[in-house]
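Hey L., structure's done. Input below.
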Amino acid sequence: MTYPPPGQPWPPQQPPQPWPPQPPVDPWSTQPLPQPGPPPQPWPQPGQQWPPQAWPLPGPAWPQPYGLPPLPPPKKSRPGLIIGIVAGAVALLCAVGVVVAVAANLLGTNGGVALPTSPPSASGSPAPSATTAPPVADPGPTGETFNMAVGDIVDVTNGTAQWSVQLVTAKWSQGGCDSGSSVVDPVITANVAFDVSDGPASLNPVFDFYYVDDAGTRFAVSGLTDCDKPQLADTFSVPTGQSRTGKVAMVVKSGLAGKLYYRPSAEHLSASWLIAAP
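Output:
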């Protein structure tokens, strides 16, 4: 005989009912053991709803372990409050610095006390202050002269040194002065005399002389024209009573009239001679 009989369905099976987990028991506790809650509800039959359950199951709560005090609540850190205090202090210091700077600017650099000004003189210009030293004249060299004629002399005094420079002659030529020269533009050749009355004094023709035409173009001394014979050579520390003579040449592509300038590279002065067009 088979079970179930042919044509009959299997009866519904009831699943096993597990016991709910039990909490650990402290063997040293003097409290009575908690009573187990109600037995678990049976599984609902087909077509029925689950009964409402309360979780956790009703029953007495477990006591604290014997002899252990309750844990204190954790302390709350307040980093936001600390950061706010530091930022406020920095802002206050910056504001104080700005106020001090503005006050110093308004009061000046005399410790906050304005210096009295001198009353104007009868001529209308302010009288010199007792605390202000009179201006000292620049002890630079003297003898600056412009637009001199060819043949004129400029006298220069610098400290204890005295010398003179003369443009003796100025001559134009077309191209270089030698048949093998590659220069084809106009050339101005200056014959210069350098005399030392109280030395020593120095001369550097390559840097001390240059030509500026009427269009404002500057031309330096050139050594490719073969027109500077005999050449005015560099001379340093020329003693008293001695002189140097020679020529300097400049290639002037424009061929325009202009000025020959003498400006010692180590001195703050200059002089010039007018040069007519070729």
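Residues 107-118 have pLDDT under 50 and may be disordered. The two ends are 150 Å apart (CA to CA).

-- N.
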